[in-house]
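Need tokens for this chain, all 100 residues.
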Amino acid sequence: MIPLSYYLSLSAVLFTIGVVGVLTRRNAIIVFMSIELMLNSVNLTLVGFSSFLGDVRGQILVFFVMAVAASEAAVGLAIIIALFRNKQTVNIDEINIMKW
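Here are the structure tokens for all 100 residues:
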């Protein structure tokens, strides 16, 4: 059996990588992937605690979070594609949708 501290350590590392990616990168696709990485690290924490406590409710919650994340990914990528078609860039600094 894998100790809970391993799950939490890996989750913390993944979440930290995601936060660094969001704060330092300017490419919208990389920022989007970093947010997904942070979401998956939280899912790993839920699965770790669910396994540690012997309760399946955490794993059921992860199933619903993954379903929401899949729909969020589809909508997010559609928005990024629409921005690229209009502005010809995915650089966050160059995208200002409030201007004409």
